[in-house]
Structures are given as structure tokens and as C-alpha cells.
Amino acid sequence: HGTGTPENDKMEYNSLRSVFGEAIDAIPISSNKSMIGHTLIAAGGVEAVFSLMTIMTNTLLPTTNYDMPDPAIPLDVVPNESRQAWVDTVLSNSFGFGGQNVCAVFSAEPA
Question: Which residues form the Ketosynthase family 3 (KS3) domain (predicted)?
Fold first, then answer.
């Protein structure tokens, strides 16, 4: 979801760690909101497009303006520059005010 607020970042980190365990340390994470801002009701759709483009181009989008990492949140946030990586699956989290929450998984079609 990546709003970049201290409390929300901790909550998101803890939820990802509860799902992926220690494996989360090796999973790249990025936030498109750092580049385009919060598009409110369109955020989930925009993030779905970015997720599919990540799979199609094998390019991890950067979390821009990431200058001061929180030592309590040891994630690989793909800081400030895109990165090439083989990507076949993307998890997109969208959390709305009032409890409208969606986690969508996008995967490449098996060859």
C-alpha cells in the first residue's frame, strides 16, 4: 500500500512478516504512491496496471524519495532507482479508509 507514514509502514511491515515470515527479507517491495501520489479511488486500478507491467517488463519500480530508512522495518524497498529482476508474481495491497481492503495476486501465465 505504501503511504509512507510511520504508523502505517509498521503495520504493513508486520502484516507482510506475518504472512511471509523471514522470507520477506528477500522479497523486493515498492510503492508507486511515491512517484504518482495517492490517486484515491483509482489507486487499486493504477496499482494493478503497475503490477502487470512489472511482470511484463521484469522491472521493479522504485520507491522514490526514500532517504531515511526506518531500522525497525528491514525491507528491500527498491530505493530510488528501478531494478531489473525476473518477476512472475506480484502481490498488490490496497487498504481504504473505513476497512475496504483488497490484496490481489497477479501471476504470469505458465510457459
Answer: 1-108
Q: Return the closest-CA partner of residue 84 out of 64, 53, 58, 52.
A: 58
Q: Give 102's strand partners.
A: 94
User: Going along 31-80, which residue ranges are E strands?
Assistant: 59-60
Compute, in degrees rounded to 10, the torsion defined by CA atoms 12, 18, 20, 21.
120
Residues of the chain below pLDDT 70: 1-4
For the record, the C-alpha cell of 62 comes out as 522504485
Q: Which of 82, 19, 92, 18 is nearest to 49 (CA)?
A: 92
- Which domains, and CATH codes, for the chain? 6-107 (3.40.47.10)
pLDDT tens by residue, 53-82:
999 999 999 999 999 999 999 999 999 999
**Cell matching residue 7:** 504508523
What's the grid cell of residue 6?
510511520
Q: Which residue has the cell 496499482?
A: 47
